[in-house]
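## Example record

The block below lists the input lines for one assembly entry, exactly as stored, with component labels intact.
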Amino acid sequence: MTEAITDLDKLCIHTITTKPWNIETAISKYSKAGVRGITVWRQWLENRDINTVHRQIVEAGLQTVSICRGGFFPNIDKKARQQAIEDNIRSLEEAAALNAPHVVLVCGADPKQSLETSRQQILDGIFAVLDTARDLGVKLAIEPLHPMYADTRSAVNTMKQANDLCDKIDDPFVGVAVDVYHVWWDPDLKKQVRRCGTKKRIFAFHICDWLSPTKDLLNDRGLMGDGCIPIPHIRGLVESSGFKGFNEVEIFSNHWWQQDQDVFLNSIIETYKRFA
Amino acid sequence: MTEAITDLDKLCIHTITTKPWNIETAISKYSKAGVRGITVWRQWLENRDINTVHRQIVEAGLQTVSICRGGFFPNIDKKARQQAIEDNIRSLEEAAALNAPHVVLVCGADPKQSLETSRQQILDGIFAVLDTARDLGVKLAIEPLHPMYADTRSAVNTMKQANDLCDKIDDPFVGVAVDVYHVWWDPDLKKQVRRCGTKKRIFAFHICDWLSPTKDLLNDRGLMGDGCIPIPHIRGLVESSGFKGFNEVEIFSNHWWQQDQDVFLNSIIETYKRFA
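Predicted structure tokens for the full assembly:
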């Protein structure tokens, strides 16, 4: 039985969840609400001095849990692949500047080539940035994405694939980000989370819910409890495997982004305690 | 290397593909275009005498390839589950009346209960109709559905699950319908198609394409060649496994349903020859 959530000590929110807020507002609002972790999406760092942002995060009593996102390695064009590698190196530097333990990798895919080719390019891309990751002390968290994103966002679509990829790379700096939205349907989930745990490679845990009906492939994720994902069950699997990190609320939602974000933040906290 | 398609001998179209056409128009148009097979969606039989429809199909030189669709067994409500079983029996009777070799099962799921419970109810449902299937000489084709439909349409989302389910039932009247749209992303596809072939349980093969971007979870499928699915490759796997049946074009598309259906039918035939 998964232990109930009684406080906000492990609550982290992704800046994209409250998309209308800039980084300063997000830091201030999360902190005042008692949230303890923040995952910074890189767009929120544009036109900002990163050291100032880091100081603001620390002074607000928050911790940078992850940087989102690196990845997008595959491309039919070789020059674009090289640019992706350079961009991933920048993401690692940003993570280091914010004292974030890892960068989340949305690995990428290119519909103009086979999934097998994209998967090879993902492997090559990770190897190409691994030295930098080690030098900076920042890990890489492969996030398997729901198969509905296999065309353009990720050719890594199951926990098994993420585990297999980690086995191939075999480096303590490469692990997995488990997002309930992407993996809840998988009949192999329990086994693969355990396998992940044995290798101590679960670096992050993301939550939200799957709405019925889902109106948009990308931006119609639900608040915890509004959908059909057994979040406490999956959290239990992840915790049983040894994971002790944050529960990160990552909700892309055209609906919620149009609402008052203070109301939304309150709802996140309420539903986090009741349904996560 | 998959053998190229040079004629329409194995081309079948689902009546839902040309949704604006009623059954009489579909039969007549398909036949005149040289199509040889028709998969009849049950809505097309409403307010029709089924024996008359059968005669029309035969006189047009067509063959009924499948009936779509049975399934939808899971429901948190017991009475609804019983009604689903009765409805599946009617679908088998309709298949027998149209001389269709099998009914395609969209197995179903209920977001108000766990996937495991839904999967058990699917197994129970299939067992409940299996005697009728045998008596009528009509087979049941389990169609694994894309994981984006795991909430309400099917708790069977991979070829492996479909194979495992068939193994549990272990009856020559239960097999699999392979639809490229649902399975193209699966890293385990080749292995599971082979496993299916070894047991001679591939009953049907459906084609269309995955568009980038896909604008609607249900009704934005593409014409062959307009997306990223390696259709000839998957057809090759299926044929290598011993399948000799029809290639069924099943396209749900808000876009195409708004176009002139004669133009659409021409496009289906052209893209079938070039990209399937």
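The first strand of chain A starts at residue 11 and ends at 14. Chain A touches chain B at residues 111-112, 114-115, 146-148, 150-152, 157-158, 160-161, 184-187, 210, 212-215, 217, 227-228, 230 (CB under 8 Å).
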